[in-house]
Design a protein that fits this description.
Blueprint lengths: L7 E11 L10 E9 L3 E5 L6 H8 L9 E9 L2 E2 L5 H7 L4 E4 L3 H4 L6 H13 L3 H14 L5 H4 L9 H13 L5 E5 L7 H18 L2 E6 L2 H7 L2 E6 L2 E7 H6 L4 H8 L39 H5 L4 E5 L2 E4 L5 H4 L10
Parallel strand pairs: 3-8, 3-9, 6-7, 7-8
Antiparallel strand pairs: 1-2, 1-4, 4-5, 9-10, 10-12, 11-12
Length: 340
Amino acid sequence: MPDADRRPVLEVRGFSLKFSRAAGVPNLVHDVSFSVGTGETLCIVGESGCGKSVTSLALMGLLASPPAHRVGGTAHFEGRDLFSLSERELADIRGNRLSMIFQEPMTSLNPAFTVGEQIGESIRRHRHVERGQAREQALEMLRLVRIPAPETRLDAFPHQLSGGMRQRVMIAMALANRPRLLIADEPTTALDVTIQAQVLSLVKNLQAETGTAMVLITHDLGVVAEVADHVAVMYAGCIVEYGTVADLFDDPQHPYTIGLMGAIPSVGKREGALATIRGSVPSPELMPHGCRFAPRCPFAEQRCIDAAPPDKVIAGVHRVACWLAPVEQVAAPLSRKEFA
């Protein structure tokens, strides 16, 4: 659901993907559209299993085909459709103009090479500099991400670093070639709160310095409130709501978004139990025919079961895929109790 008033670095339209070519198998990712502009942060939020990471891996060209099969859609990065590029063309962009921070640095970093060698390899691949120059630039990146004693850490192996330091190494590697777009897949997962705040602050500062656009994938609404310009709420492979961060926090419209908001612990005196959303994300082979959230939605009607809802414009760039929207006109204010 892109914003037509911005010139995006990345614009995804109607992207659909499945892991089977058989007729009648539902799309795992269905009709996904979003965009992100220079210096902006788009957060894609949702539960595990909603298709966030699969979407990011598809954009990076890192899904094996087969089994992955793109059903339709485009993804234009700096005017070029990523899905139409050859593997060699993708390799020239990946790690250079387009970079990714993966969810778990311990499995993403090669245990057999030092962190300096791994950062330097990316620099040498795209900048064509000598080994000594690449080492100096890798050292500068470690300084940039504020790793203590970078001269020593440069020759350390991943297992010799803490989780927070490994994540900083991943950030240094992703930003080494000053990418135009950074995709960050839950970069603060498994980090304690203090380190998480430091990593987020680091990414925001580096983004401000370089003008890099960022797609941040997360399930943490606290992170969303901290860093997002725009938010796409994803459920069962579909974007069910899209808008500015103020739109989503001040006026959530989709029952799934409202349920997620209701599950956030409040600051101050606790009143009653936190809300829960009953059930779980459906498996691909059991995807509902109509609205994919209908089996878990306390407000579902027969039309929700029968047909997928259209996108509705609420105001500005705020859009929602729900038959009931805008909720103020069709239902009483939706409170946490409906999801309890």
